[in-house]
């Protein structure tokens, strides 16, 4: 009989680990061992070891927590054929992107989650965990980078985003879509990511403070003044269209960019910031000339993780710009 693959399951909290008791509907009560025990079919797929890393709702996870999860995954990969991380759905996309920046190993790192608690009708956690272990144990997943497996779909970690607040089919990699799927006991990859994102590291210490500010029509100069006075380490702007802002705010944003990195992303949810198409005041050409950094294909949430990591590893303005040029 062929030897089964070895998969290590790391738990970090989230809805998949929650059970309601009385009026307490959000208690984190299930560790990795209990999650695996609820899916007896795992025994036919892999020898599973379980480890508890964190127990938090994912909105409470910090950049340091993401780095800790990445370190735990890399350590587990030293003795496993695949690693599965159970996680909350709220900020799954940030952790998946962060791990794609912080790790570079052949061993599959697969994140999964649940939209319903284990005690709710139609709980999706067990099926998602089963599919995630199948993918982590698959030789086809080796070298594919950080993956997210949920609702029988395989997504590239850098592309995933939560697209619905409560449905079980809550994740998307639009406009590209999933790169594979799980059908019964089969793992199928239809696409392979062209290239990994830049490799970065977390330098430790206090995570940099980087707020996201979404602008609509007529971004007020007072908002920019408040950002300048806020004691931040950097700022992410989520801007209309391909990266455009009110003309009146552009000079103030340029002065802010002299003091700290200011990265602007498109708020559209698809496409990327332009760099050389529009030249009016407040356009992307104008903002770049004033020292702002285009996020390229990253949205504001992913841009925040990238900028925090850049600042945490001590990158100066030129190095930060070069990092974003790599996206």
TrEMBL record:
Ranges of residues in domain L-asparaginase N-terminal: 6-190
The keyword Hydrolase is annotated on this UniProt entry: yes
PROSITE patterns membership: ASN_GLN_ASE_1 (PS00144), ASN_GLN_ASE_2 (PS00917), ASN_GLN_ASE_3 (PS51732)
Alphabetical keyword list: Hydrolase
Boundaries of every Asparaginase/glutaminase C-terminal domain copy: 210-324
One BP annotation, GO: asparagine metabolic process
CDD domains, per database record: L-asparaginase_II
InterPro entries: AsnASE_II (IPR004550), Asp/glu_Ase-like_sf (IPR036152), Asparaginase/glutaminase-like (IPR006034), Asparaginase/glutaminase_AS1 (IPR020827), Asparaginase/glutaminase_AS2 (IPR027475), Asparaginase_C (IPR040919), L-asparaginase_C (IPR027473), L-asparaginase_N (IPR027474)
Residues the record lists as binding substrate: 58, 89-90
EC number of this enzyme: 3.5.1.1
One GO MF term attached to the UniProt entry: asparaginase activity
Residue positions of the active site: 15, 89
Pfam families: Asparaginase (PF00710), Asparaginase_C (PF17763)
PANTHER family: 60 KDA LYSOPHOSPHOLIPASE, L-ASPARAGINASE
Family note: Belongs to the asparaginase 1 family.
Protein name as it appears in the record: Asparaginase
């Amino acid at each position: 009989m062929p030897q089964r693959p070895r998969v290590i399951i790391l738990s970090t909290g989230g809805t998949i680990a929650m059970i309601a008791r009385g009026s307490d509907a959000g208690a984190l009560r299930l560790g990795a061992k209990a999650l695996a025990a609820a899916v007896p079919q795992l025994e036919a797929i892999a020898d599973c070891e379980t480890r508890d890393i964190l127990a938090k709702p994912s909105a409470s996870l910090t950049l340091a927590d993401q780095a800790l999860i990445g370190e735990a995954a890399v350590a587990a990969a030293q003795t496993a054929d695949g690693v599965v991380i159970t996680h909350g759905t709220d900020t799954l996309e940030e952790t998946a992107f962060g791990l794609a920046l912080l790790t570079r190993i052949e061993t599959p790192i697969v994140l999964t989650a649940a939209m319903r608690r284990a005690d709710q009708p139609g709980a999706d956690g067990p099926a998602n965990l089963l599919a995630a272990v199948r993918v982590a144990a698959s030789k086809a997943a080796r070298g594919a980078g950080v993956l997210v497996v949920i609702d029988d779909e395989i997504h590239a970690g850098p592309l995933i985003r939560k697209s619905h607040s409560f449905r079980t089919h809550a994740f998307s990699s639009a406009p590209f879509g999933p790169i594979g799927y799980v059908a019964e006991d089969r793992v199928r990859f239809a696409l392979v990511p062209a290239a990994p994102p830049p490799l970065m590291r977390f330098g430790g210490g206090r995570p940099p403070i980087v707020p996201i500010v979404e602008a609509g029509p007529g971004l007020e100069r007072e908002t920019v003044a408040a950002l300048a006075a806020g004691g931040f380490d950097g700022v992410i702007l989520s801007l209309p269209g391909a990266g455009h802002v009110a003309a009146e705010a552009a000079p103030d944003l340029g002065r802010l960019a002299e003091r700290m990195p200011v990265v602007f992303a498109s708020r559209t949810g698809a496409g990327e910031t332009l760099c050389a198409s529009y030249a009016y005041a407040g356009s992307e050409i104008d903002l770049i000339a004033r020292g702002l950094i285009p996020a390229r294909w990253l949205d504001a949430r992913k841009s925040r993780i990238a900028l925090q990591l850049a600042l945490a590893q001590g990158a100066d303005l030129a190095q930060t710009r070069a990092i974003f040029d790599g996206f």
